[in-house]
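Need residues for this backbone.
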């Protein structure tokens, strides 16, 4: 699964931290389920296994992943110093293909 995750992210030129989810069947075959392109609650497990501080590496490498790219737009109502209320709608942003 690790090799498949690296191959998938490399094939699309992804740079940064993320989580890839797979489903595993009783035969040991696995199937891609999702990719979350952000730090997740699981990231400390990766840090323990690899002895790499993921946040420190992103800062050290000056990785700031800007929202959007050509023909892609990121829409959100979140702004600097925005406070997410305790009963928030989990949709804090959405990615739009504007082709």
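Answer:
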């Amino acid at each position: 699964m690790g090799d498949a995750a690296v191959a998938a992210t490399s094939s699309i030129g992804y740079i940064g931290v993320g989580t890839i989810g797979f489903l595993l069947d009783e035969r040991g075959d696995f199937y891609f389920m999702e990719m979350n392109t952000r730090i997740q609650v699981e990231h400390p497990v990766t840090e323990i296994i690899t002895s790499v501080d993921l946040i420190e590496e992103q800062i050290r490498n000056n990785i700031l992943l800007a929202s959007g790219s050509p023909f892609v737009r990121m829409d959100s109502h979140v702004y600097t110093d925005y406070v997410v209320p305790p009963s928030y709608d989990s949709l804090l942003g959405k990615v739009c293909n504007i082709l």
